[in-house]
Amino acid sequence: MSIKGSRGPQDRGVAPNLIVRGVAEAIAFYEKALGAEVLYRGTMPNGVTLHAQLRVGSSFILLSDELMSGAGVPTGSPEKLGGTSAILEIFVDDVDSAFERALSAGGKPLGPVMDAFYGDRIGIFRDPYGHLWTLATVKEIVTPEELHRRMLEHFSAPEAV
């Protein structure tokens, strides 16, 4: 679906289409938690929103209600599937305050904000619709060699296995 003004004319980036139960409620959460801007909202006469396009920072996210899933497209919300196979990551200026904002909006932490071995400070949360999000702030730039060394060190630690 292409809506005039929802993307730049040369945009060829990937926009995740999140399948949720309750697009209207998800929109409210993403506005509050991530500062999302609604670009399009497809609401049926009965009030059910089936599809929406949002902008979060410079990225675009699509939302579709799982009511739109059919036999030909085997999708569903994380609640229906019992898990998710992707983590959405957003780089922010201040991960600590962005993480608190997401939690105060209803996100559930998967742990505390922490400094990761690869140079970012990160916080991971599950949104009320079952999707996983990583918020990250770059703390240091590391070379590929240093990253590899740190990765081996990190995953050889007893608690990492």
Task: Name the features.
161 residues; alpha+beta; 2,3-Dihydroxybiphenyl 1,2-Dioxygenase, domain 1; Signal recognition particle alu RNA binding heterodimer, srp9/1; 5-stranded mixed β-sheet; 4-stranded mixed β-sheet; 4 helices; 9 strands; 24% helix; elongated
Summarize the structure.
It contains 4 helices and 9 strands; from the N terminus they run E-H-E-E-E-H-E-H-E-E-E-E-H. It is α+β, with helices and mostly antiparallel strands and 161 residues long.
Question: What would you say this structure looks like, in words?
Answer:
With 161 residues, the chain is an alpha+beta fold. The chain folds into 2 domains: 14-68, 2,3-Dihydroxybiphenyl 1,2-Dioxygenase, domain 1 (Roll); 84-161, 2-Layer Sandwich (Signal recognition particle alu RNA binding heterodimer, srp9/1), CATH 3.30.720. The protein has helices spanning 23-34, 78-81, 95-104, 144-156, and strands at 17-20, 37-43, 49-56, 59-65, 87-91, 108-109, 114-115, 120-126, 132-138. The strands form 2 sheets. Strands 5, 6, 7, 8 and 9 form a 5-stranded mixed beta sheet that branches. Strands 1-4-3-2 form a 4-stranded mixed beta sheet, covered by helices on one side. Strand 7 (114-115) and strand 8 (120-126) form a beta hairpin. The longest helix is centred in the last third of the chain and has 13 residues, at 144-156. It starts with 16 loop residues before the first strand and ends in a 5-residue tail after the last helix. The model has no long low-confidence stretch (mean pLDDT 88).
